[in-house]
Amino acid sequence: MGPNSELRVFSGTSNPKLSADIVSYLGLKTGEIKISKFSGGETYARVLENVRGQSAVVIQTCTANVNEELMELFIIVDALKRASAKSITAVIPHFGYARQDKKSASREPISAKLIAELLERSGVGRVITMDLHSDQIQGFFDIPVDHLTAIPILAKYIMSKGLKDVVVVAPDIGRAKTSKKLADRIGAQLAIIHKSRPEQQKTEVLHVVGGVKGKTVILVDDMIDTAGTATRGVETLRQLGASQDVYFVATHGIFSDAAMEKIKKAKFKEVVITDTLPLPKEKQIPEMKVISVAEAFGEAIKRNYQNLSISSLFD
Fold first, then answer.
1. Among 25, 33, 187, 221, which residue carries the largest CB count within 10 Å?
2. Identical fold between 7-149+294-314 and 151-291
3. Backbone region of residue 33 per phi and psi (left: phi > 0; alpha: psi in -120 to 50; beta: other values)
4. DSSP secondary structure code for residue 85 in this structure
């Protein structure tokens, strides 16, 4: 896009490598900003270059430090708004609180809706994100939301491996739609794991709908958090005669609690994620493959700035 563009891209502290890759794709320099903490723990941000009348983008993903990162994002956006930026776009590769998108019990919050309202109130005019836990979150916003998907990127990688007799498996009914999209792209069959969840974050697998015997399995989810669903699922799939070669594919690699131990024990052929979240060194195992989504986000930012179609990226 060139250094003289009126587009300014700033990075929060959550995933500097992805931010740098996005800015590099755009042919720009990362906007200058000072981010620090006061002695009492409050976040401070100051934009160090002129943004008056210009289009500003802030890149900030949500990791395990989600509360700190969201507050940092709100403060950066407020600084840009008060510096008279013409427009402010928040690029949030992994959208925090996305799993709290409805009331599952009485007197619960709908936290994803609250985050949407806070983003708007802070001054965000557009959000670009990827593979939300549920599509309905788009409707929580009264501003445009560009909901990107990593499915084409993941499908391209899977197809490059030349696998035979492949079945794509959804870990639950809620992931069936996403899994079907991947299956269609790679020309594979679809199966679904039917399960019940008697307690929060505990999974009991009941049975598999669809044929998996003798098949190479691609297990698909939007995120890998505790990895309990996947590891229990792979046990069931192998008991039903699936190949030992099971691939676990997801957009967001959170890997909380004992996720890595479970993944190692499950003996996946590969665990394929994207770089929407940074992957610490202690979680970089040989069977882990990280695919970059920088080009997808960079292209979405560029097309927004140039008033071009974004949906055509995924057709």
1. 221
2. yes
3. beta
4. B
Q: Which residues of the chain have pLDDT under 50?
A: none
Going by C-beta distance under 8 Å and a sequence separation of 6 or more, which residues neighbour residue 70? 60, 62, 96, 115, 118
The region that residue 243 occupies, defined by phi over 0 for left and psi between -120 and 50 for alpha, beta otherwise, is: beta
Fold of the domain spanning 151-291 = Rossmann fold (3.40.50)
> Can you give the residue ranges of every domain in the chain?
7-149+294-314, 151-291
Exposure of 78 by Cβ count < 10 A (0-12 exposed, 13-18 middle, 19+ buried)?
A: middle
Q: Count Cα neighbours of 90 within 13 Å in the Cβ-side half-sphere.
A: 33
Residue 91: enclosing H or E segment and its boundaries? strand 87-92
Strand partners, 47: 33
Overall size of the chain counted in residues? 315
CATH fold for domain 7-149+294-314? Rossmann fold (3.40.50)
pLDDT in the model for residue 236 = 87
Q: Is 53 exposed, middle or buried (0-12, 13-18, 19+ CB in 10 A)?
A: exposed
What digits encode the pLDDT tens for the residues 154-170?
A: 999 999 999 999 999 99
Going from the C-alpha of 70 to that of each of 47, 92, 271, the distances in angstroms are 17, 10, 28
Catalytic residue list contains 177: no
> What's the rounded Cα separation, in Å, for the pair 3 and 113?
37
What does the pLDDT read at residue 250?
Answer: 97
Q: Which two tokens stand for residue 179?
A: 């899994």
